[in-house]
Description:
By secondary structure, the chain is an alpha+beta fold. It has two domains: about 10-230, no CATH class; about 235-345, no CATH class. Helix content is about 30%, strand content about 30%. Strands 3, 4, 5, 6, 7, 8 and 9 form a seven-stranded antiparallel beta sheet that branches. Strands 18-17-16-15-20-21-19 form a seven-stranded antiparallel beta sheet. The protein has a five-stranded antiparallel beta sheet with strand order 10-14-13-12-11, sandwiched between helices. About 35% of the residues are buried.
Amino acid sequence: xxxxxxxxxxxxxxxxxxxxxxxxxxxxRAEYGVPHDRLARRGLPGPLRRLYEFxxxxxxxxxxxxxxRHWIFAHxxxxxxxxxxxxxxxxxxxxxxxxVQDAWRCATLTEGDDPPVWVEGDWNETPQWERxxxxxxxxxxxxxxxxxxxxxxxxxxxxxxxxxxxxxNVRVEPLWLxxxxxxxxxxxxxxxxxxxxxxxxHRRKQGHAKPGDLCxxxxxxxxxxxxxxxxxxxxxxxxxxxxxxxxxxxxxxxGSGKLDGPGAPAARFPPGTLDFATVRDQxxxxxxxxxxxxxxxxxxxFREGHSSATPRRFNDAALAESFFATALTATGQSSxxxxxxxxxxNRTPS
Length: 350
């Protein structure tokens, strides 16, 4: 689909990047570029001029931003600077990429067909510029592909997806291998899985990539559904009530788990207490994505091999009570202190 690997010069690399960007972010429009008259007022090397001319004002929705939108090449602190934020750094270099809290910044020359890239920041042993790429165009390809992954609406690391990626019968297209990044000790490779999932593999410069070094990203609802369908199964569910002093129900795949709340030690219930598939499916159907406030109830679905999960909003008190009551009975402590505290804090009938 893309010919990054066979590009022989900066112009061909930027051609491919201009093909990839609409593939990932949607159709290109003329107004997404910085106008020619503004570009002409600043000295820029060829690859940066091409990028700003093509996508220097391309934004996408973002609920976390005050304006509700942000530039496509900025995510989670790492960014290519917008055209207006470009500035001269030490020695007349042009600072064009950075971490917003100044952990590092990258710079290049103000002119040239394809000048080098330097970095200074947390990765440097001494406070000086270190050369990280002989080619600005190659650096931009790596950096833009990485931001496409990390800024995607759906992005996961998952053992089942990793196994699919390693399956010789599955279509995996190498896009860009061993690209240099802002971290001089890291090399980044990118692939397309099944023609729709962008895969980022990162490794130490002197080491080998590990299975856990793979991130899988989807650009749309269809891709997100693919990731959901091919991830490892859910093996644990944690439900929190929305009370002022919340209680927690932790259920494992064998139907065992624990119940605890404020002022009460955790009490365990044995395997088979709850039907895990029923708990999982009913809680998934009754929960929703979106911001979770402190007063909200929430539920987390943990997949095999995952150490974290995104909370989903949950406020079905009757459904929660049915699961909590079954678990409480199975602990053998429903008539004791645990049961009293639970009824008091959750206002359930005696």
